[in-house]
Amino acid sequence: MKWKDKLNLLLCIISDLQIIHSQELIHRDLHCGNILLQESLSSAYIVDLGLSIHSNIVDKIGPEDIYGVLPYIAPEIFDKRPYTTASDIYSFGIIMWEILYGKSVYYNKEFNQQLQIEICCNNLRPSIIKDTPQCYINLMKECWEKCPEHRPTAEKIYDIFTKWNDDERILLELSSSDNLLKDIENGHDQIYNETKYCSRIYYSTSFILDAVK
């Protein structure tokens, strides 16, 4: 995919998320399986709002109610903090990684309790290949910030992507990585396991650590 097309998909997704957040809703289960693409890859849509919740009642959700796909769940959720629009932004950051590299997020290890601990306690994030466009990496890392208050809003991300689309300098920087990204996609031999990317219930990290002691 050309960078213009990648940016267009990201704009579609963040636009949907901006609309959801403008209604004071939190999606709570944003991941690749809940993004629908047109066959031409010209548009993308966020779907499955079954777990979405209004921000006014989010505090009534128990800390044990953690549900989703592990790599997309914001680390503060595993620390018994409530879902917020910022937790959706963390999930969007993982989707940015997938659109960048053209493959499903992975860590070369099982999606299990050990991975959860490393994400929450050791700030583990998906690996970034050298020479990937720095402007894109910086924004993606902002979405991954451990502190949810430091993550950008959906509105801010939408504005950034819109400006990039009209900035020839930025487009040139992004396009310069096309050959690198193509080699990564062609050399990627990860076997997609659909069951790994299905939402399920998780325990808090403190619960897991207490159980190990």
UniProtKB/TrEMBL annotation:
<dbReference type="InterPro" id="IPR011009">
    <property type="entry name" value="Kinase-like_dom_sf"/>
</dbReference>
<dbReference type="InterPro" id="IPR000719">
    <property type="entry name" value="Prot_kinase_dom"/>
</dbReference>
<dbReference type="Pfam" id="PF07714">
    <property type="entry name" value="PK_Tyr_Ser-Thr"/>
</dbReference>
<feature type="domain" description="Protein kinase">
    <location>
        <begin position="1"/>
        <end position="161"/>
    </location>
</feature>
<dbReference type="GO" id="GO:0005524">
    <property type="term" value="F:ATP binding"/>
</dbReference>
<keyword id="KW-0808">Transferase</keyword>
<dbReference type="InterPro" id="IPR001245">
    <property type="entry name" value="Ser-Thr/Tyr_kinase_cat_dom"/>
</dbReference>
<dbReference type="InterPro" id="IPR051681">
    <property type="entry name" value="Ser/Thr_Kinases-Pseudokinases"/>
</dbReference>
<keyword id="KW-0418">Kinase</keyword>
<dbReference type="GO" id="GO:0004674">
    <property type="term" value="F:protein serine/threonine kinase activity"/>
</dbReference>
<protein>
    <submittedName>
        <fullName>Kinase-like domain-containing protein</fullName>
    </submittedName>
</protein>
